[in-house]
Design a protein that fits this description.
173 residues
Length: 173
């Protein structure tokens, strides 16, 4: 039969082990607030995975566009070609999405994971929640992001993936 916290504390004390008075209550508080170390690490992995997914999809889109430009330019029946350098430079602007969906959340989650006190961890957790809300506002309102998945060159689901991941993260915060 499992022991209650009070029974476990009495047993440990009887064995001569000194437990700080707030040790068990801090663990309970952390679990009740929904941000255990495991949950913080999972959130970090979710965000890092999303950023890598977005980068991969943008690279795929960039390749598809450049392949289409090269195919167009190699068609001798077409009079006007595209300047590959200019198109390539324009495509690089797609990556500004990653500038907005930056690494601040990972950094804040790392700070929470490395926090020495419950209060510090709680503060970093709250800051991370604010960053998630900022990212959600960007994803929901950015015109470029709204158009990327309708590109006509290759299938992407960047906005949907970001919306899903951010929704999951927001639910954890």
């Amino acid at each position: 039969m499992p022991l209650t916290l009070d029974e476990a504390k009495s047993l440990i004390t009887a064995l001569g082990v000194n437990i700080p008075e707030d040790a068990l209550s801090k663990k309970a508080e952390t679990e009740n607030l929904g941000f255990s170390l495991v949950q913080l690490q999972k959130s970090r992995l979710t965000w890092d995975g999303l950023r890598k997914n977005i980068q991969s999809q943008l690279q795929s889109l960039e390749k598809s566009i450049m392949d289409a430009v090269r195919a167009h330019n190699s068609d001798e029946t077409i009079e006007d070609g595209f300047e590959e350098g200019a198109v390539g430079a324009g495509i690089k602007q797609l990556y500004t999405v990653l500038d907005k969906l930056d690494e601040r959340l990972i950094d804040k989650l790392d700070e929470a994971l490395n926090a020495k006190t419950f209060t510090d961890r709680q503060s970093r957790h709250a800051e991370a929640a604010g960053i998630v809300k900022e990212y959600q506002a960007f994803v929901n309102g950015d015109a470029l992001l709204a158009q990327i998945d309708k590109n006509g060159f290759t299938s992407t689901n960047i906005r949907a993936a970001a919306t899903t991941a951010l929704g999951e993260l927001a639910a954890k915060f």
